[in-house]
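Researcher: Please translate sequence to structure tokens.
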Amino acid sequence: MHRHGMVRVVDYPADTTLAAASIVFGGIADRFPGLIVVLAHGGGFYSHRAGRLERPYTLQPPPKPAHSALDRLRWFHYDTITHLPRALRYLVDLVGAERIVRGSDAPFDIGDLTPVESVREAGLGEANERAILDTNPACLFALSARQ
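Model: Translation complete:
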């Protein structure tokens, strides 16, 4: 993983995916439905591999969590760090713009240096852009209550 800087490119999103799967399969999301979890790195590989995560859920003997990996896609929140407009559009299509907040990974060099432009380049429409860039973060972090 250290060769060619793959820790930042592969390992970090893999860790995010492992964390999400652990929360789902461990029943944490079922026990604490009001818990707010924002998955960095656009959710890692979770959104792209949710179907694969669904399969072991169907094979898992009872007791198992009440909700599967696919069910829980829309329980998590995600940041926009996908580095590819098409990937961000896919995430929005899958979980809804209301589950996504602008991310940057600042100050790290692997981060998105132009996060606002990246959201706009995804072609999500004005309402979705406004939600991701302004409304969702303000609501998620209760910023409107602090003003």
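Researcher: Any highlights?
Model: DSSP finds eight helices and three strands in the chain.
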